[in-house]
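Review this chain:
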Amino acid sequence: MPIYEYECSQCGNVEEAVQKFSDAPLTSCKKCSGQLSKLISQSSFHLKGSGWYVTDYAAKNSGNTPAKPKKEETATSGTDSKTTSADKTS
């Protein structure tokens, strides 16, 4: 359920209410019984994960994104950097 914010026109008190979309808006302040008006608040909703514009399509459409760096392949063998006792005596 969404959280709505209301501000009192008399005392300036701001209160929050968890309400359904179908619920009637609050009309009177709990502190002074003044008239409440609904506030428009910034949402903290953020889409994450694959399948959203930000992760899948934004990089393809914008021309100023840097290219992904390539992974370097390093193949090292255990005997390349180590010397054996047989190598030291030869």
In short: Residues 1-41 form one domain. The mean pLDDT is 74. The CA atoms of residues 82 and 88 lie 11 Å apart.
